[in-house]
């Protein structure tokens, strides 16, 4: 897929919100869209839509929600990886319909819908065989480093601004139109992992983002780590150990199976994170040697083996 010439359209209008809260005490409040240093603009690009964008299940979901008067787009990893010419596994959608309305609309269309995370705005739709996660647009109101209080919204910019990295905030239509509010297309093309807005603020909102930065750097980076991001991760590293173990392992295991995890683990060692997560010690040199051996004998990467 090739990047086409970009056109910019102002997309700053804030619409009516539906309210939903989750999360704990000691929170920070945010009642306006995330401050990024410049007004968010919609950069509209066009890609050749991959086949999964027009599969019957996908088309049926889009047609059903649109006929009911709602907007819907592909979001997150499926958009990012399609543009990067990487395999797409999960297909996530976002919509301006609140969760109860999504259940109602899909039920009327005889599409099976499971309220897998309705308290967070997410339902799982199964038109035929492939499951789709559909999440209502949201904005953060309060954060405490582990949880967030959110409100449902109609504003695509507000939803995009609550994500972690610029290329994870991309969304797309089935015809291949891509919406980019934070220069995610440029960062993805350059292999640059960059937080949306102020890196330190993004890390303080959710300390798991420290691990997510290293995971995405291991898999997508073509450049040296972003200095602001690395400084924020260094400052936030002592707080990562307080997160639930399953969340830590979910990110760490994905980092371990990167094609060349050694340099990223050296960065993690440099900021003092490895000794917090792996008190028994971790030899980066031994990991690099094992990674090379796996490649030689065509072994699939295994996170446990690489530890």
Going across the biggest sheet, name each strand in turn: 1-4-13-12-5-6-9-8-7
CATH architecture of the largest domain: 2-Layer Sandwich
Round the Cα radius of gyration to an integer and report it: 20 Å
Largest sheet: 9 strands, mixed
Proportion in helices: 25-40%
Secondary-structure element sequence?
EEEEHEHEHEEEEEHEEHHHHHHHHH
> What gap, in angstroms, lies between the N and C termini?
36 Å
What count of helical segments does DSSP give?
A: 13
Q: Examine the coordinates and then state which fold CATH places here, giving the name of the CATH topology of the largest domain.
A: Beta Polymerase, domain 2
What percent of residues are in strands?
A: 15-25%
Give me the CATH superfamily of the largest domain: Beta Polymerase, domain 2
Question: What overall form do the CA principal axes indicate?
Answer: globular
Domain module count: 2
Q: What would the average pLDDT be, to the nearest integer?
A: 84
Notable characteristics:
307 residues, alpha+beta, Beta Polymerase, domain 2, cca-adding enzyme, domain 2, 2 domains, nine-stranded mixed beta sheet, four-stranded antiparallel beta sheet, 13 helices, 13 strands, 18% strand
């Amino acid at each position: 897929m090739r990047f086409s010439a970009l056109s910019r359209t102002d997309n700053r209008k804030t619409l009516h919100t539906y309210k939903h809260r989750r999360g704990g005490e000691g929170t920070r409040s945010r009642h306006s869209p995330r401050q990024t240093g410049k007004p968010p603009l919609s950069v509209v690009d066009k890609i050749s839509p991959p086949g999964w964008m027009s599969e019957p299940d996908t088309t049926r979901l889009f047609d059903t929600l649109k006929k009911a008067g709602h907007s819907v787009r592909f979001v997150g990893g499926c958009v990012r990886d399609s543009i990067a010419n990487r395999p797409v596994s999960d297909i996530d959608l976002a919509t301006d319909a609140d969760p109860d309305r999504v259940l109602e609309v899909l039920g009327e269309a005889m599409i099976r819908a499971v309220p897998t995370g309705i308290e967070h705005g997410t339902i799982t739709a199964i038109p035929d065989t492939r499951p789709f996660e559909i999440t209502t647009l949201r904005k953060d109101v309060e954060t405490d480093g582990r949880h967030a209080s959110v409100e449902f919204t109609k504003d695509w910019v507000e939803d995009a601004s609550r994500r972690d990295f610029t290329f994870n905030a991309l969304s797309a239509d089935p015809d291949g139109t891509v919406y980019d509010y934070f220069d995610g297309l440029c960062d993805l093309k350059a292999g640059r992992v960059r937080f949306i807005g102020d890196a330190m603020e993004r890390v303080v909102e959710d300390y798991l983002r420290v691990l997510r930065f290293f995971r995405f750097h291991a898999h997508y980076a073509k450049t040296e780590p972003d200095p602001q991001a690395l400084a924020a991760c260094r400052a936030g590293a002592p707080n990562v150990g307080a997160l639930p173990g399953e969340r830590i392992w979910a990110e760490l295991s994905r980092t371990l199976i990167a094609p060349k995890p050694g340099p990223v683990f050296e960065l993690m060692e440099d900021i003092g994170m490895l000794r917090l997560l792996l008190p028994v010690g971790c030899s980066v040199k031994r990991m690099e040697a094992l990674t090379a051996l796996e490649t030689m004998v065509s072994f699939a990467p295994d996170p446990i083996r690489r530890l």
